[in-house]
Amino acid sequence: MHRQRFFTLSASCPDRVGIVAKVSGFIAEHKGWILETSLHAEPPQDGEGVGRYFMRIEIKADSLPFHLAEFRERFRPLAEELEMDWKITDSAVKKRVVVLVSKQEHCLYDLLARWQSKELDIEIACVISNHDTFRGFVEWHGIPFHHVPVSADNKASAYAEVQRIFEEVRGDTMVLARYMQILSPALCAAYPGRIINIHHSFLPSFVGAKPYHQAWAKGVKLIGATCHYVTADLDQGPIIEQDVIRIDHSDAVEDMVRYGKDIEKTVLARGLRYHLEDRVLVHGNKTIVFR
């Protein structure tokens, strides 16, 4: 991927003739230099008269005679004409990520390693946990750590505190890095398409707790991991990324857990990257991922 500063326009709208011509024409009219374009048309779903069109366009930032605020103002009439859901972001502005974790360390360690090496060029605003286990490790990296205990008696207040912290640190994305609690419906509803989870199975198989035990009991030959957006329905949100590894009859549950940790780390990192680079567009309970 190129390293120069660019703006990313991501959008979807009802399908029709001339969408690409109108959008690219608007960019060309203002001397915009298109660096990368991804396009996809989805057929109509049940009850829809037309399908939906999806696009992601990277524009060289210094080719435009104005910045994002003016781009948004000038582009708005065309977006309204096309009935478009859209946003435009600046590659120079780092996304602020808040990580939630419980007692499993592998995904947290992996994300911090990728952040420290700048493989993930983000700001980790803070880490929130329902246990105090990783405070020293996180603070050693210079990242604020918040211990928010969660019990059957305090879930509403605990998740209100999580939301307060997320707003206070101006978080863009919340990442559940093996956070072993079910978020409240209110918290899920507050940030649609902004909360990402890593589930340790190849969804929709083995939803909920102990998926490796479930997989072992079923005698499956493949296990996997799924990165998905969080909704109020447990492990049912739109899927961003998945991967699998082959196993056989000789593998115990402990072996599957060990194999799975490697998949979970890579799937979460890939899914998070796609999201942060505005490569994921949600369509109902599905996603369009421009990799």
UniProtKB/TrEMBL annotation:
PANTHER family for this protein: FORMYLTETRAHYDROFOLATE DEFORMYLASE (PTHR42706), FORMYLTETRAHYDROFOLATE DEFORMYLASE 2, MITOCHONDRIAL (PTHR42706:SF1)
Reaction catalysis annotation: (6R)-10-formyltetrahydrofolate + H2O = (6S)-5,6,7,8-tetrahydrofolate + formate + H(+)
Enzyme class, UniProt record, top EC level: hydrolase
Gene transcribed to yield this protein: purU
GO molecular function: formyltetrahydrofolate deformylase activity
Limits of the ACT domain: 8-93
EC number: 3.5.1.10
Active site: 235
SUPFAM superfamilies, sorted: ACT-like (SSF55021), Formyltransferase (SSF53328)
Keywords: Hydrolase, One-carbon metabolism, Purine biosynthesis
GO terms for biological process, alphabetical: 'de novo' IMP biosynthetic process; one-carbon metabolic process
Top-rank lineage group of the source organism: Bacteria
Gene3D superfamilies, A to Z: 3.30.70.260, Formyl transferase, N-terminal domain
Pathways per UniProt: Purine metabolism; IMP biosynthesis via de novo pathway; formate from 10-formyl-5,6,7,8-tetrahydrofolate: step 1/1
Name of protein: Formyltetrahydrofolate deformylase
Xref: InterPro entries: ACT-like_dom_sf, ACT_dom, Formyl-FH4-Hydrolase_C, Formyl_transf_N, Formyl_transf_N_sf, PurU, PurU_ACT
Stated family: Belongs to the PurU family.
Transmembrane feature ranges: none
Biological function: Catalyzes the hydrolysis of 10-formyltetrahydrofolate (formyl-FH4) to formate and tetrahydrofolate (FH4).
Coiled coil: none
